[in-house]
Target: Antimicrobial peptide NK-lysin-like protein
Amino acid sequence: MRKEKSTGNEFEESSGEIQTEQAPGICWTCKWAMKKLKKQISNGATQDDIKKKLEMICDEIGFLKSQCKTFVNQYRDTLVEELSTTDDAKTICVNIGVCKK
Model:
C-alpha cells in the first residue's frame, strides 16, 4: 500500500476501492451520476435497464471517468436498489456513505 500526501489529506491506495473520506470528488461524482441517471430512468425501469445505464454513465463524465467507473463497480448493486427508489441524487449518495448529510 502506498501513501501520498496531497493538500493535507492522506490518500491510501488499496485494491482499487474508494475510501470515501479519502477520495476528494467522490461525493460530487456520485451526485453528478445519480442526477443524470435519475433523468434517464423511467418509473418502470428494470434492474437490468438500470445496470446498463450505470455502465454507460461514466463515459460522459470526462476527466473523472476512472473514479466514476471504480465508484460504479464498487457500489453497483446498492446503486441499482437506490435508483429504484424515489430518493434524490444527494440522498442516494448520503445513503451509500460517499457524501455527508
Notes: The chain has four helices and two strands. The longest helix spans residues 65-83. The beta strands are 3-6, 9-12. The first strand starts at residue 3 and ends at 6.
